[in-house]
Write a structure and sequence with these properties.
The protein is an all-alpha fold and about 350 residues long. The chain has one domain. It has 14 helices and no strands. α3 runs parallel beside α10.
Length: about 350
């Protein structure tokens, strides 16, 4: 909205021509989201506390978590409001990728909100059933995938990192593949959200990195030089990613150990889905497992734990997701968090390195 108004003035005042640049609008969107989240953070905490929107703690979880019971949750609304508002103000709203990214984010936020609400209403750590949650996520993922493959100039090929020239065409199979990526990313981030600041750090790192991929994919010259798929219009998603990164950092100010509020499913589900969608839109779907290795490791730890117990009646980890395993090994919570952030940064750098290894 603000972009359309201000850029229209460039014919009269040449200084407004700066709004044509995606990088400038990304920085401005980031600053806007950061200011909004800093300003609204204390208000959101106070409001959630007055509504008694307190975190319910798993009875079988680490004992140290029992002290966190009652900490305001559903703080993800702060990230979403700040990030989405900044995007609406500074992104090019004629860009279809922006609207589809917002649709995916808001849709998954609605699922997370219902899940959180049911947990709070029932005063337990159980919300929507696994079948209900997965069904809703899958439906939204399929819709997003279908819209994506029918967008002009969007290719249904898979682009392998490092291996140059290997781009298999999968046609309409891209729709369920896209749904799998979005649903998988959403749930992986959700499983990671178990310690103060553990999820939002890697989310911010992954969002910034995938935003770079989107910008490169949307620039014809850069895409040709780096030998990656060119996706007209995808570069605008950098504004969306920049807003999410800054909104996440604003939230981290209040979520850092010891947390004043938690993200909740209303935050973790849409943030993961947003990262998955941008990876699809920028044709970097197969880089996502490397970029989001922390999330992948958390998800796999749960899968392996459940499979091992069902097949062997033995557990691989002391507790899953894997961050709880390290807790039960005696690692202090801040140590786990910072080390996971370091791993996320290393993986982001390795993912960016694939741009030159083509």
């Amino acid at each position: 909205m603000l972009y359309q108004v201000l850029y229209a003035l460039h014919t009269t005042y040449s200084g407004f021509n700066v709004f044509r640049y995606i990088t400038f609008r990304t920085l401005l969107a980031g600053l806007t989201a950061l200011v909004i989240s800093f300003w609204l953070g204390p208000i959101v905490i106070e409001k959630l506390s007055s509504l008694k929107v307190g975190q319910q703690i798993r009875e079988d979880g680490p004992e140290r978590h029992l002290a966190k019971a009652g900490t305001p949750t559903m703080g993800g609304v702060l990230i979403l409001f700040s990030g989405i508002l900044a995007t609406l103000l500074l992104a090019d709203l004629s860009n279809a990728y922006i609207w589809l990214a917002l649709m995916v984010t808001i849709g998954y936020a609605a699922i997370g909100f219902v899940d959180d609400y049911r947990k709070l209403r029932g005063r337990s750590s159980a919300g929507l059933s696994a079948r209900q949650k997965f069904g809703l996520q899958l439906a939204l993922g399929l819709i997003a995938g279908f819209v994506l493959v029918n967008m002009p100039s969007f290719s249904t090929t898979l682009n392998f990192p490092v291996i140059k020239g290997v781009r298999p065409e999968i046609g309409m199979w891209y729709v369920p593949f896209a749904a799998l990526v979005i649903v998988g990313a959403s749930n992986a981030v959700n499983l990671t959200d178990g310690l103060d600041g553990l999820a939002i750090g890697p989310v911010a790192i992954a969002s910034a990195t995938i935003g770079v991929f989107a910008y490169v994919a949307g620039n014809a010259k850069l895409a040709e030089y780096l030998q990656i798929a060119y996706v007209p219009g995808a570069g605008e998603l950098l504004v969306f990613c920049g807003a999410l990164v800054a909104a996440g950092l604003g939230f981290l100010w209040f979520n850092a150990y010891p947390a004043q509020m938690f993200m909740g499913d209303v935050g973790s589900l849409p943030l993961g889905a947003a990262i998955g969608f941008v990876a699809l839109a920028s044709k970097q779907e197969l880089v996502l497992p490397l970029l989001g290795f922390v999330f992948v490791a958390e998800a796999l730890s749960v899968i392996f734990q459940v499979a091992s117990f069902k097949i062997r009646r033995k557990r691989i980890f002391k507790m899953a997701p894997i961050h709880h395993h390290f807790e039960l090994m005696g690692w202090p919570e801040p140590l786990i968090i910072v080390r996971f952030w370091i791993i996320a940064i290393i993986c982001a750098l390795l993912a960016l390195a694939t741009l030159k290894l083509r």
